Amino acid sequence: MHICFIGEFPHQGQPVGGISMYIRNTANLLVENGHRVTVLSFSETVYGWEQQSPFAIYRVHPKKWKLLNFWRIAREQHRVLKALHAVHPIDAVETPESGLCFLPKISVIRYVIRLHGGHMFFARALRQPMKSWPTWQEIQSFKKADAIVGVSAYVLAETKPYIPTDKPMHVIFNGVNVALFSPQQKVPTAYRDIVFVGWLVPKKGPAFLLQAFLQLANDFPDTRLHFYGRDTNDESGQSYWESLVQTVPTDMGPRIFFHGNVPNEQLPQIINTAFCCVYPSQMEAMPVAWLEVLACGQLLIAGDAGPAKELIQHGHTGLLCKPTDAADIAGQLRWALQHPEEVQQIREQARQKAVQYFALDTVLLQNLQLWKG
Prior knowledge:
Layout: E1 2-6, H1 18-32, E2 36-42, E3 48-51, E4 56-60, H2 69-87, E5 92-95, E6 110-115, H3 119-125, H4 132-144, E7 147-150, H5 153-159, E8 169-171, E9 192-197, H6 206-216, E10 223-228, H7 240-245, E11 256-258, H8 267-273, E12 276-279, H9 288-295, E13 300-303, H10 308-311, E14 319-321, H11 326-338, H12 340-357, H13 360-372
Helix pairs in contact: 6-11, 9-12
């Protein structure tokens, strides 16, 4: 098969988000299994073909025009797809929520939208007003899809009211590289490290995790808190991390660390050497970061919003917390710190679930059926 993905895809060495991680993992596995893959993405520094192996990447400049820019990008993408199809016939084109809005279709190609969590989903889930322009784009895009797949039952259910009822709809979970993200031999240390991996933005919950840590740190002097991920700025331009640090008492400063972005390949070691990972997000679609923790056979304490219960059975494959309640996050952490034997059992069960349901090979088989139609 020849599959084309349209969406954000970072340059080498740049931070990798959930969608780009899905594309990279899926593209590499497709190529390994004898399929052809092309990625159409954006860049302000590269125009045209960036690479041809192991899969092809074509870059469109996202801001060449101020007016009609969406239309211009879609026409450029269509031109590339049409030329590609003439040489290497394309079986399916896959985009995120709004990706088909302005894109002309080629009649023999199957067009699939994967719901990673678009504007309407997060606005609805976080009880924020929907903006008319991105809402219109997503609705028009849904009308043009041949099939729509949600990365969780929750994201599909929340988006379904805006999807035409005649569209085939499916749920296919994100996958995780269970060979790369796997349990490693733990080396005893003097500390029990609590780890957060993700963008430093309010909806991911780093502020509530920090408050939770401060509530129990004196009772567990061997604990430390580590943040990994991209810092962001608030509306005034202040670093979000700096605003968090201002709330930390001086005596706690040496036990709280911010490491910034790290390559994805380093995460298995970071996850495995931790005591646990805590991701108290207020809303997700189906986060790959959570799957990576489970695949490592590590304890994950996650926010109980959205699709959390599709992934985690509380007390069996992880722990769930109220993401905006620092006392509840602290309570889950306290229980874990006081029950090492139960925690080890949870770790083992988490690994089993990741291998059984979320391994890339398992998910790929489902996607191949989807793309074939």
